[in-house]
């Protein structure tokens, strides 16, 4: 079973990915892990990626695609299947993935999209507050400080402010929508309502995967 998981920041994609890997025994292929492993093992593509990273430059698509191909060619993939997480990030990468899978005699079985309304995500992601003295982290809605707390005793990191979160989500939506549209045309996408309890989301994910199987 060869799957791709997608979702906006804060949608719970990472949590669901871990549950899928645990329940189905597929290999979790995340971009960060792939890069770290390729550089640590000094593969041809890993060395190339490191040369760009060391110079503070973006790793070009052809190198990223090469690292993905190296990883998907490893023996555990045909044995266990995979769950791709964090790749592809562009249409060009999605098309490159098609070619990689063809070259390796594999094919994508489905795309699980954890779908959450962006307004809910802004509330989720911008609610974090930090106590000025202790550094303890809370959430205004989901994990507020005890009692009638004084807001002046807390601060928000720049990354957690609503306007910053909205900008980040807008960028992710702009990047992700064309990829989702691409896979929808191939009839591969199953949308999962992500604004539910974690276990209920996973029940829906399991139903989707079992239908794919």
Describe this structure in words.
With 213 residues, the chain is of the alpha/beta class. It has helices at residues 13-24, 31-40, 44-54, 61-72, 75-80, 91-103, 118-125, 162-185, 198-212; strands spanning 2-7, 27-30, 82-85, 110-115, 128-131, 137-139, 154-155, 189-193. The protein has a five-stranded parallel β-sheet with strand order 2-3-1-4-8, with helices on both faces. Strands 6-5-7 form a three-stranded antiparallel β-sheet, with no helix packed on it. Strand 5 and strand 6 (137-139) form a beta hairpin.
Please specify the SSE layout and strand pairing:
Elements: E1 2-7, H1 13-24, E2 27-30, H2 31-40, H3 44-54, H4 61-72, H5 75-80, E3 82-85, H6 91-103, E4 110-115, H7 118-125, E5 128-131, E6 137-139, E7 154-155, H8 162-185, E8 189-193, H9 198-212
Parallel strand pairs: 1-3, 1-4, 2-3, 4-8
Antiparallel strand pairs: 5-6, 5-7
């Amino acid at each position: 079973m060869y799957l791709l998981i997608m979702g906006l920041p804060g949608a719970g994609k990472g949590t669901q990915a871990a549950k899928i890997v645990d329940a189905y025994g597929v290999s979790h292929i995340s971009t960060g892990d792939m890069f770290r492993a390729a550089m640590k093992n000094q593969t041809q593509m890993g060395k190339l990626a490191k040369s760009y990273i060391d110079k503070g430059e973006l790793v070009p698509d052809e190198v990223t695609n090469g690292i993905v191909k190296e990883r998907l060619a490893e023996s555990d993939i045909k044995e266990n299947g995979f769950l791709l997480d964090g790749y592809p990030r562009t249409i060009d990468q999605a098309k490159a993935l098609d070619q990689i899978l063809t070259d390796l005699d594999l094919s994508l079985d489905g795309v699980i999209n954890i779908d959450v309304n962006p307004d809910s995500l802004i509330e989720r992601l911008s609610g974090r507050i930090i106590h000025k003295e202790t550094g303890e982290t809370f959430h205004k809605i989901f994990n507020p400080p005890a009692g009638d707390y004084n807001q002046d005793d807390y601060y928000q990191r720049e990354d957690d402010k609503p306007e910053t979160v909205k900008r980040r989500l807008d960028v992710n939506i702009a990047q992700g929508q064309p990829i989702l549209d691409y896979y929808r045309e191939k009839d591969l996408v199953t949308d999962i309502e992500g604004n539910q309890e974690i276990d209920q989301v996973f029940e829906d994910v399991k139903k989707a995967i079992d239908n794919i199987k």
